[in-house]
Amino acid sequence: LVGNLTIHCNSSCCASNLSFVSETTISNSTGGDYYWPADASADNGTFICGEPLVINKTVKDPSTGNWVDGPLTLGPGWKGKDLIFKITVTAPCENLSNVVVNDTMDPSLKYKNASVAPNSSTDQTVNWTIGQLTAGSSWTVTFNATIVKYGTDDNTAKTSGTVDKIGGVGVDAIDSVTITTNPPALIDVEKTVWSKPKGASDYNSGTWV
Prior knowledge:
Layout: E1 14-17, E2 46-49, E3 54-60, E4 67-68, E5 72-74, E6 82-90, E7 96-104, E8 109-114, E9 120-121, E10 125-133, E11 138-147, E12 151-163, E13 169-181, E14 194-195, E15 207-208
Parallel strand pairs: 5-13
Antiparallel strand pairs: 1-2, 3-4, 3-6, 6-11, 7-10, 7-12, 8-11, 9-10, 12-13, 14-15
């Protein structure tokens, strides 16, 4: 017997188990209402609506002091200076476990330090293990990175975790900001004119002004 089962969520974010007899398998045919499509090989009997794990990545605009999503464009004088980034991870509706955050920077940025000590880091990567996040709670970290090269940098933060209510089904989220540091002009142009002193009979004693 083949039939359709329609599941409606009564909130913007939720997770639940579905109880079927052992002979039943389920699949997602529309994808419209499901954040995590049901997979008979791994997730048969569970569904998730909305986004139970959310990440927000921003950078502080040095000209305004505001946290912005980017893109952020800076002048050549910013090479060698630090930018401040912020990552906020939120569990909107479900208790989560095994939550981790991984931030990756392109070579034009170099990690310096953070408000929460990372579990591991390199010049271009930073990793934090959060562990558990209860429903409705958030975790935030700020960190400094030094601009070491001119160019455009994509700074990407990823998070992943498992949903406690439905047996540890995995969820993840990603966000990024783009930073461009413009190089100095390759050619400097200076225009001058030869000026003859007042009263001089010719231009031999003039100067460039």
